[in-house]
Amino acid sequence: MRRRTRQKGDLLLEALLFDVDGTLADTEELHRQAFNAAFVEHGLEWDWGPAKYAQLLAVAGGKERLARYLDSLVLEEEERERLRARLPEIHRTKTRFYQAFFAAGRCPLRPGVARLIADARAAGLKLAIASTTTASNVEALLDATLGEPPHRLFHALVCGDQVAQKKPAPDAYRLALELLQVHPARALAFEDSPNGVRAAKAAGLAVVVTPTRWNADADFGDADLVRPSLEGLGLSELERIFARRDAVA
Ligand code: XBP
Ligand code: MG
Predict the structure, then answer these.
(1) Number of Cβ atoms within 10 Å of the Cβ of 130
(2) Is the dihedral of CA 133, 199, 212, 18 positive or negative?
């Protein structure tokens, strides 16, 4: 699709920055199942049920989540360190299962996501991904849902280990803004989790939150807009959020 060059008097908004897990698609159940499949393959009697996983989601990053869980177990220190050395391999197995589940079409995009991406591209906005997950997981998601690689849809892709500090640190959003060459006051972030909102806000971005069941009861205090999904949320309404912010600024 041809991208329109921006004309004077266009939108205030210059860029949209999207989180991935929970925002583009409700993926955390698939991540949970992939973790449990990896535990079985590695002969571990670990089993993360939905309630346990909801707690563990407070830790962004699958490798960090595994480490936090390991630290919570009552183990001989020698056994704990032996398992810690295996975490990278366990996480690679988990990623393999996750991508196989996606390839099997087990997770659609959330409502309104595809249309907003298409409208924003047609309006000449810049688009970026700012995620804690691995780049190959983002590729699997976009390939399975939109049939395109990330670089055909987004001008910048910032994932997992590309930054020193994962969410709630602002690193991923700051790097995405730098790659887009866009000022945070002219960009909008889309998130699903408290960690994500904190990360975007710390980067100076206005944030639209579309929680999933994993964060349904969370407090999104300083988000600029909270909606059940992006369905029906058009660029003109997003521009109005912006105009309100500008009026205040
Ligand atoms: C959500 C995360 C990720 C996923 C698991 O990322 O925190 O860690 O839960 O994916 P997002 P990995 O910022 O897109 O919401 O195991 O690849 O980390
Ligand atoms: Mg998320």
Answers:
(1) 34
(2) negative
* 118 to 42, 112, 114: CA distances (angstroms): 41, 10, 6
Q: DSSP E strands: which ranges in 67-224?
A: 126-130, 156-158, 187-191, 206-209
19 has catalytic annotation: yes
Q: Alpha-carbon dihedral of residues 77, 57, 147, 108, nearest 10 degrees? A: 130
99 lines ligand 1 (CB under 6 A): no
Phi, psi of 52 (to 5 degrees): -65, -45
**Which pLDDT tens digit goes with each residue over 149-170?**
999 999 999 999 899 999 999 9
Q: What is the pTM of this model?
A: 0.93
Which residue, among 49, 50, 46, has the nearest Cα to 69 in the 3D structure?
A: 46
d(CA 46, CA 49): 10
Ligand 1 pocket test, pick from 59, 96, 133 with the greatest ligand atom count within 8 Å of Cβ, gives 133
Give the closest residue to 56 by CA, choosing from 68, 39, 42. 68
